[in-house]
């Protein structure tokens, strides 16, 4: 039996003779490299714990044995996520990290680093170990090829390769801001910038990648990288702008990614022309490549242009939309090989949809191009794709398009998007639920014909369920959707929302740990207590006058313009109600003091809102004509003088409203 | 005159100008006009910010759930806001039709608004006709010169000059780089273009009526009055739209996500 040879090789690992062990390790190595079946066979023979044990012996540990063992562990790691999970389970990560210390044999360092690179490629692998002990310091040391004291040409090449591996490990361990901070404090920036000019393209690519992830969403580190000095006469940005012109598409892509991350971190605003004229066109051109480069290019493009109208327009002008739409339309779901035998078609589709979502997120011009590319039916299809990334991206694309009333009333209705979208609120992936819910926010608006459809399918109950989610973003999106749903809604719709949600839950949301959620909950309250006395009365009944006024009083104090705006309009809307609604406000001097203070707020929208409160509190069309009493009280409070001052406000809206308010004071 | 001095309000950050003594109960001050109160609020806010920062540092940096962190806050002015209504009439020769305009969405930062235009008695098939229109607000993004919809510069000037508020601007219109900044101005100029019928956008043609042309519009903030002139190459010239704002006193709001 052939497998006896393998069983025997595993048994020989227990030999006391290092020579026998090395021989067995070489045998195993030669069998498993590039062979998935053999990897699985050896894992099932329980070889991993034996390999890990070689690193634990203090005395008499043989460096040859360890080098070979590290190579074998690395080979397992390259076999995919399941294998990595096995390695992690048997505690292989820590010993490998111990191996990369500069004290060790440079061949052992290289083999261990190679294994670690493969382990950290797996997104689920725990990165914490890297941040323990002195491993970060070791990694940063290895970024400098000279620290291994290479003598021969072969050694020189090996040390550059080790530096490349170290940079790649660093790039893969920047998942959070905390991790970025620790890596930077270990001194990674100067070492990586130096590696950018080492002349070996693989190491340069790895350095660019690491720098890109170190400054992602981090303005502080963005400017630190830009200001990093090196022996080169060129600045880091200049070096990157040279590398983006390299003939290798991979180098172009990674340079573009690094410059994109720097640009998003506001670190290179003076290079805006280079972003528009070099980085963006490079990314669009890379869409014509094959394989991994083409897959990642739309992802980087999406990140570059999101939140930036000017870049979105430039992307529209570059012809990117048609290329991206082509990926969405033609990349087969079954036939992976049709388009690109080397590529991952799911990833390409997801990234293309994300890029289209970004192109159309802020401007109607972008939305029109995406609609004209006739991909909406394919977006609907993508909503039931096997990959959750594709489903989420399809929601994002719909979300961007649904920001136009025109498209909401036409193309999206025609494509029947409401039902498949609604189903995704119950998706197994939280990411998909979150993006679907963000999109639902727009679909349930007053002017959307799909609002009915969603409500008929139990939309209110579903959104209330999601409001209870522990996930902050999902909770935010759900309360946002409910708020939009009651905008200008009939009393019956408001009633069914509050029946499902309950006033108690609304109050909890108003006190949520996330300030954004508080804002949306207050906006919901504003929309509920709106348009007719009956609706206002419902809110008084639901919360009780005291609780309602306590909420208003406490929230008026927050130093957050959006919260203040919402709460002022809650007051304003209540002040259009019946006499005792107005009285509830009038009986709280702290609330009145706040309103008066906000009339001098630096934000004109807040000044307008505060004056509106006053206009409604002094309004004189109620039959029992009790307003003269309120006018008197408010005058004593100093409101009239305040409003007189506002007649000279810099803002036209404020002046107009102040005029109205003042005229109410002069009524007999 | 500039915006009022910030010290009038503790909310603008000037704490030192506030009275020192207050009647704190259990160390908690609830009177917004006192110094302790403002101090405690500021401390509370700082703690909140710190806590959020700490949370943020632990969060994974990912692109999957977010395409945009830009908020699409409603940007409005006076009676141009989402949900605003105008009523009035359109006159064509000796005929006059009741018109109501219901604004659905306003985004001044994009020089954009849209809404429904209801017109009564225009044709027998559609005694109540509603169309969806989109506006180009003249400003940074759109010039007075239409350059499309069959309107040449001459047609533009013929129509715009019917608004007396436009006349002082007339001589600048053809100047290169001229931009009318509508911010803080009493007059806002627009073009309104109807796109499809509401509720059924699939209906393409209507007997006896057409919405192929567009309106030149002038809106005055201080009066809330909208005046407009319809233009279509084969329609009667200068059909006039006259609308006034229906005052609201309570304001719900929405925001696109």
Automatic annotation (TrEMBL), chain A:
<keyword id="KW-0963">Cytoplasm</keyword>
<dbReference type="GO" id="GO:0005634">
    <property type="term" value="C:nucleus"/>
</dbReference>
<dbReference type="GO" id="GO:0043161">
    <property type="term" value="P:proteasome-mediated ubiquitin-dependent protein catabolic process"/>
</dbReference>
<dbReference type="InterPro" id="IPR038739">
    <property type="entry name" value="ARMC8/Vid28"/>
</dbReference>
<dbReference type="GO" id="GO:0005737">
    <property type="term" value="C:cytoplasm"/>
</dbReference>
<keyword id="KW-0539">Nucleus</keyword>
<keyword id="KW-0677">Repeat</keyword>
<dbReference type="Pfam" id="PF00514">
    <property type="entry name" value="Arm"/>
</dbReference>
<dbReference type="InterPro" id="IPR011989">
    <property type="entry name" value="ARM-like"/>
</dbReference>
<dbReference type="GO" id="GO:0034657">
    <property type="term" value="C:GID complex"/>
</dbReference>
<dbReference type="InterPro" id="IPR016024">
    <property type="entry name" value="ARM-type_fold"/>
</dbReference>
<protein>
    <submittedName>
        <fullName>Uncharacterized protein</fullName>
    </submittedName>
</protein>
<feature type="repeat" description="ARM">
    <location>
        <begin position="458"/>
        <end position="492"/>
    </location>
</feature>
<dbReference type="InterPro" id="IPR000225">
    <property type="entry name" value="Armadillo"/>
</dbReference>
TrEMBL record, chain B:
<dbReference type="Pfam" id="PF09783">
    <property type="entry name" value="Vac_ImportDeg"/>
</dbReference>
<protein>
    <recommendedName>
        <fullName>Vacuolar import and degradation protein</fullName>
    </recommendedName>
</protein>
<dbReference type="InterPro" id="IPR018618">
    <property type="entry name" value="GID4/10-like"/>
</dbReference>
<comment type="similarity">
    <text>Belongs to the GID4/VID24 family.</text>
</comment>
<dbReference type="GO" id="GO:0005773">
    <property type="term" value="C:vacuole"/>
</dbReference>
<dbReference type="GO" id="GO:0043161">
    <property type="term" value="P:proteasome-mediated ubiquitin-dependent protein catabolic process"/>
</dbReference>
<dbReference type="GO" id="GO:0045721">
    <property type="term" value="P:negative regulation of gluconeogenesis"/>
</dbReference>
<dbReference type="GO" id="GO:0007039">
    <property type="term" value="P:protein catabolic process in the vacuole"/>
</dbReference>
<dbReference type="GO" id="GO:0034657">
    <property type="term" value="C:GID complex"/>
</dbReference>
<dbReference type="GO" id="GO:0006623">
    <property type="term" value="P:protein targeting to vacuole"/>
</dbReference>
